[in-house]
Amino acid sequence: MAVSLLYFLLVTILPQNYPNEPAVVTKIATALNDSTADGNVLFKFTVAGEASVIVIVRVRSNAALDRITSRLRCTGYLEIRSQPIITYESHARNLNVSADLTGPYEGTLQPENIYWFNLRVDYNNKTTEELLDIWKTEAESFLGSRKSGSVRAVAFKNLGEREVQLFINAPQPDQFDLLLFNTPIVQAIGSDIRAMSKGVLFLN
Length: 204
Ligand SMILES: *[C@@H]1O[C@H](CO)[C@@H](O)[C@H](O)[C@H]1NC(C)=O
Ligand SMILES: *[C@@H]1O[C@H](CO)[C@@H](O)[C@H](O)[C@H]1NC(C)=O
Ligand SMILES: *[C@@H]1O[C@H](CO)[C@@H](O)[C@H](O)[C@H]1NC(C)=O
Description:
InterPro entries: Dimeric_a/b-barrel. Residues 1-19 form the signal peptide. The chain has helices at 21-33, 62-73, 88-94, 128-148, 173-181, 184-189; strands at 5-13, 39-47, 52-59, 78-87, 114-121, 153-158, 163-169, 193-202. The protein has 204 residues and is an alpha+beta fold. It has two domains: 5-86, Dimeric alpha+beta barrel (Alpha-Beta Plaits); 88-199, Alpha-Beta Plaits (2-Layer Sandwich), CATH 3.30.70. An eight-stranded antiparallel barrel has the order 1-3-2-8-5-7-6-4. β6 (153-158) and β7 (163-169) form a beta hairpin. The chain is globular. It starts with a strand and ends with a strand. One 2-acetamido-2-deoxy-beta-D-glucopyranose is lined by residues 95-96, 132.
């Protein structure tokens, strides 16, 4: 089986380029289009209200990722942070979540009202076993809601870190907050979760 590595890239346009930000964003989109030989871009977003772009890319090697980021750096003054990730489905498989929930997501994100959540889970006072149990219950709940159609979302877990990147359609953000309160992981260890949220738009 061919190696397939996933990366989350956070590309931030630096202040030197603020006056021509739209042109730089277009160049970034073109550079990503020109990178098809090196990688398969799964998602690309701009962060609403900020001069940054998020790219989720599948590559065959770290060298291929380097070629993509080099191409991006030729577009302007950028800071690029790259994070290896795995799909949330493969995280769930590692936790032994049943196979009917861990297949590839067949739904799609709608272009309106997409939010990016970065969720970092600490576990003060929990054993690894307890934490894995909580993660598993959470994965079953999330993937179950998604399968039933009540949630439209894609998610990834940082490789080797207790951190999740979630992209979700939340037409009514206040109701999303309620949904979050009731997730198993927040119920179990809410005080150990640090969350960050931003609005995002598809970059076309
Ligand atoms: C990138 O490719 C897509 C699909 O082929 C095309 O619609 C889009 O205009 C291209 N964007 C740029 C900036 O080249
Ligand atoms: C998953 O199942 C395998 C095989 O039964 C077991 O060895 C492993 O510890 C389980 N992993 C978790 C996280 O429960
Ligand atoms: C850890 O658990 C003990 C006993 O349940 C409790 O007294 C203590 O406050 C907890 N510490 C933290 C950091 O949550």
